[in-house]
Amino acid sequence: MNFGKKLAALAVAGLALVGTVACSNNSNSSSSSSNKIPKVTKKTTVVFWHGMQGAQEKTLKSLAQDFENKNPKIKIKLEQQGDYDNLQSKITSTLQSPKNLPTITQAYPGWLESAAKNKMLVDLKPYINNKDVGWGSVAASGIKQDMLNGAQIKGTQYGIPFNKSIEVLIYNPKMLKEYGITKVPTTMSEVKKAAQTIYQKSNRKVVGAGFDDLDNYYVLGMKNQGENFSSKIDFTGTKSRKLLNYFINGEKAGYFRMPGSDKYLYIPFTNQKLAMFVTSSSTETWIKQAAKKGFTYEVAARPSKYTMSQGTDIYMFSHASAMQKAAAFKFMKYLSSKDGQIKWAKETGYIPVNETATKSDEYKANKDFKLPAKLEDILNSNSLYSVPVIKDSSATYSQLTPIMQSILSAAQKNRNVEKAITTGKNKFDAAWKQ
Amino acid sequence: MKTNQKKAWFFLAPTIIFVTLFSIYPILRAFGMSFQSGSLIDLRWTGFSNYQYIFKDPEFWLAIKNTVLYAIISVPVGLAISIMLAWIIFDKVKHKSFFETTFFMPYVTSTIAIGIVFRYIFNGDYGMLNFVLRCLHLHAPDWIDDPAMSLTTIIIFGIWSSLAFNIVILMGALRNIDPNFYTIADMFGASGRDKFWRITMPELVPTITFLLTMNVIGAFKIYTSVYALFNGQAGVGNSGTTAVFYIYNKFQIVGTPGVAMAATVVLFLIILFATFLQRKMMKKIGEY
Known about the structure:
The complex is a heterodimer of chains A (about 425) and B (about 290). Chain A has helices spanning about 1-25, 55-70, 85-95, 115, 125-130, 140, 145-150, 175-180, 190-200, 215-225, 240-255, 265-270, 285-290, 320-335, 340-350, 355-360, 360-365, 370-380, 395-410, 415-430; strands spanning about 45-50, 75-80, 105, 150-155, 155, 160-170, 205-210, 255, 275-280, 300, 305-315, 385. By secondary structure, chain A is of the alpha/beta class.
């Protein structure tokens, strides 16, 4: 019996130990970016978690190799974590044991809100202002200011923009001509008109227009009516209804469509079942892969005042040593520099985060993609918007796609749309109160 | 007696320690976390607010409804078809081992791979299933992209994929029935139906109870097949969401582990209740 008691005591002690270990993770090291940023004098390894695949991963590897050649003391260890969802969940679960975190990671700011709150991220301002590892000042970095602002969490510059894209309108010029659309739509009402014409003239065989990202459709639709994405949005209010009805009417009549289980509209677009669609600029890579010989497409500005600036930034965790942080920042600087961004944009279809890269002839002369020659004009006609980093914004944003899918498929199948909107409102409001 | 007990404790110690650390502790921790809010690195006590949240969340109720309907429909139907097929293979088919192997193959294949193949079979535009239905002049629904069809699609896939394991276990049980029972039944002129209902089925009850328990628990934990069928999401508009999908989403994507753990506790209680109910029921059937 005594032995039994001892064993029970041992089990309790074991539990307590596990509890202590678990709890001790909460009190993590301080985040303050050290005042002295050392020079990289010793062999240093930087671990970088990313979610890039295919051609993007290949280019990233080659950029890391170039960087290592120029900085022989620094080793960049790229660790691919799957797609964005996998990367996000990996970061979320590893935040519990900071020692297992990488030196730097690709991430959306919304994923790291709690990490910033718990001082697990490094404030990069001193690094930007440092002349050795950084540029000396923000202005000297050449990074677009609105993209830098998008990599801030509650006013602190925790991230450096990396792989960015914007929403654009991609269209099939041959089809537009065939169905008598002489002017590429520049407003949402023009999109609707053109889509109706194409659908009718093609005897309902070609859908006029589509929207790839339903979450962006809603967020930008509200922003274009003057409403920022926040819990103050009334999902059944006048502005929201106007936005929903625009798409609902199109789905009911058949001239608009959303993506199905294939997730992306470039498939029906390259199969010539869709004449134009609003999508991420990085979709160009996929269109090029899927399109048959002779298929042509063009890129234009999103037909609205605001467009989405999306894609991730690079963030640094505070547990790393001072030298690792310095080495990591040097790599971040390299990735966002003019040369790094030109190579990155040329091979992946992302847009350069660096102003000088965007304006460079080398970038504009890239004939592999349609966007480079037009990017400057597009950025002049569109203002950039990104999902604000506030409590529950990231969670609510991710709920918008299923909410919109339910509403639009109810419209498509002639079911009760009003019921879907009411359910959508409940889900939308619940998402803001997690 | 005392020495015996000491020795028993000694030999049980590794198991007790492992079970405590890796089974009991996580359950207790999950239960504790269900009363905490904030992110994983910033948990604080919050009382019953997570439970209040999930009970008000329409997504949670949809997840529970889908999971319960899936379990109620797919398990009995899947089991009935399995018994029928196992009986046919056992009683009426030559080259049993060939068919047994064929039926077992889906079990050793990855659910993700099968799910992807089924996604193409079920496709509304170019899927094989709708091609066959159209040839037979039958209505061809949009299995994957219509939210109203999501659950039906998941159930069909669930039934199909449960057959493999069930049939192999049932074949084993059928082989274990004493052949003398049938010989004597034949001597007394029993019909095929009599033999099935009066000999085979009663002899199969323990196996069926086991399969029912396993299938019900498995059905409540459904996740992978939904993920594979709908390309990483829970159907159009999350129409095919299940309890585990909800838990994963809240834990990893939304970053509210407390809410996820509250849902886990509720799911745990539902499974516990369902298993208890079903064991009671099977005990009653066994008594006849």
